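R.M. (postdoc): so does anyone remember the format we settled on? I'll just put the structure tokens first.
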């Protein structure tokens, strides 16, 4: 049963991901973010789940993933 939903607004359109754990959600979202061109980053990411702290952690983690890509590809 999916308890976490992540919406990623990509240049090709919105992607809705569902996962039953934070780890699964992070891996799925990372794989989508990896396909986005560096010039299109950062993209909007929205995390919905019953635990607000988990949602905040995932949001912060995915923001860091995007920032790392921007910094790595800018160097």
């Amino acid at each position: 049963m999916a308890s976490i939903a992540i919406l990623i607004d990509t240049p090709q359109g919105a992607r809705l991901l569902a996962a039953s754990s934070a780890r699964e959600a992070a891996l799925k979202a990372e794989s989508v973010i990896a396909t986005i061109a560096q010039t299109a980053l950062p993209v909007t990411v929205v995390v919905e789940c019953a635990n607000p702290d988990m949602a905040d952690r995932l949001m912060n983690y995915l923001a860091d993933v995007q920032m790392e890509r921007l910094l790595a590809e800018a160097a």
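R.M.: ...and that's the designed sequence above, right after the tokens. Also worth knowing: The chain is about 50% helix and 25% strand. The chain has a mean pLDDT of 94.
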